[in-house]
Amino acid sequence: MKKIFVLAATTAMLASCGTKEPEFQSLGDGVEACFVEVNADSAVAKPGDVWNMDFDYYNSNDSLIYTSRDVAQDFLMYAPKDIAKGSVEKGIMMMHKGDSAVFKASAEVFFREVRKMKKMPKFVKPGDLLTFHVRMKNIYDGKEYQRQIDEYNERMEAQELLILHDYIRNEGIKVQPSKTGLYKIINKQGYGADTAAGKTVTVHFVGSFIDGREFDNSYTRREPYTFKLGEGKSIPGFEEGIATMRKGEICRLIMPSTLGYGSRGISGRISPFATLIFDVELVDMK
What we know:
Elements: H1 2-17, E1 25-28, E2 31-37, E3 50-58, E4 64-67, E5 75-78, H2 89-92, E6 100-106, H3 107-114, E7 129-140, H4 142-170, E8 183-188, E9 191-194, E10 200-209, E11 214-217, H5 218-221, E12 225-228, H6 236-242, E13 246-247, E14 250-255, E15 276-285
Antiparallel strand pairs: 1-2, 2-6, 3-4, 3-5, 3-7, 6-7, 8-14, 9-13, 10-11, 10-12, 10-15, 14-15
């Protein structure tokens, strides 16, 4: 009966959405919807399934704030188990593969509950609504999608390790990796006490990929990097390696992507599954 109700509601909305000024109907909790296309032969997502969609939203002045196509060709998002009252996700959960729709929902709820922002953007005023344009390109079973992701990650990590082991062999590196897979080669001994969690360290470093391409250099920027060890503010391999250094020490840290930026990388800077090499100088420790 629930599916029949949903289809009846969306059919009614179709009649009003073809106009230049679409008429929205309430889904409750302050969410309004206008379904432009409905593919009722397909199933809607279950909590934990994965949405592949085009997702744009506009402010109360109809100015575009965000379009998913600027981020990725395939914008993926997990269908939530718990939907906040007044969230646009309430409307998206009604969409089938191939559907397109326009929703209106609270800007405050979206940024606080969906985007998890602690502070509202400056353009958001109390009571403002956002307008969302959504096209549901595909819906993937959550468990099957995760299984495929896990298999892909395992293949890519295995390929990365083969390349890393070839590099270690070809460079004649004899040191053994740590339990986590970090290689540390000391080029200049340091002095004084060992570094420890809670200490504030200042380092200079040169970061490069395994093929020698440089991606960061604090010497060139003339900006040493200062942070407190043990707070997780740096990548795991950096934290682990520097925690074994002494003041004045210079070493090379070679770390697999599991100690760096993993399967995600950094868009436009560091590829997924990238082995990273850091030549590090511990300048100061307090």
